[in-house]
Amino acid sequence: MLQIAETTQTQGAVPKPRNRAGTERAIFVAARDLLAEEGFQGFGINAVARRAGCDKQLIYRYYGGLDGLVEAIGTDLGSWVQDRIPQDTGGMFLLTYGDLMEKLSIYFMEALRDDPLVCKIVAWEVSQDTPQVRRLSEARMKALGKWLEHMRGSLTPPKGVDTVTTNALIFASIQHLVISASVSGQFAGVALKTKKDWEKVEAAVKRLVRAIYG
What we know:
Blueprint: H1 20-38, H2 45-52, H3 57-63, H4 66-77, H5 80-84, H6 97-114, H7 116-125, H8 131-152, H9 163-183, E1 186-187, E2 190-191, H10 195-213
Helix pairs in contact: 1-2, 1-7, 4-8, 6-9, 6-10, 7-8, 7-9
Keywords: DNA-binding, Transcription, Transcription regulation
Organism: Neorhizobium alkalisoli
Pfam families: TetR_N
């Protein structure tokens, strides 16, 4: 945990150099980690300041308070897809829309499993209707949509397939499995604990995508 504190000059004291960039980053990382661990119930100015090792006034100075921190986290989530889901195809040449959706589905599943905060945001989307959750959710989905448009290029889906609804169902099923894995380690009798378990899920997702898109 970063312990970066800024101090102000007091009478008779030697002023210490400030490191604004480091302090801002410490506050941001502390806020993001705290939100992932505790949710909005444990997300407060004092808690973030303790986690960051700084005076809480610096949170107001640099972020304007909790709302500003949520905005910053939402902006960071806008780059979540680019950071977590590679834009290359791992040597796979995308010939069809089915190739694209197969690759994106697996990347999406792996990225969700690796990011506790995004996983929680997904869970909040269906359980909490608050401005903060909507802001974070919209940032994530906007980034995912941009990634898909970039990767799709000139690829077109088969005629007669409602891609918006179909892709929503694919992503929703992946999200639910990842959330269930974090809560109980299984869903509907399907184990979601080991590498082998997830390899089975990956194979099933690929078959579903191919059955729809060819």
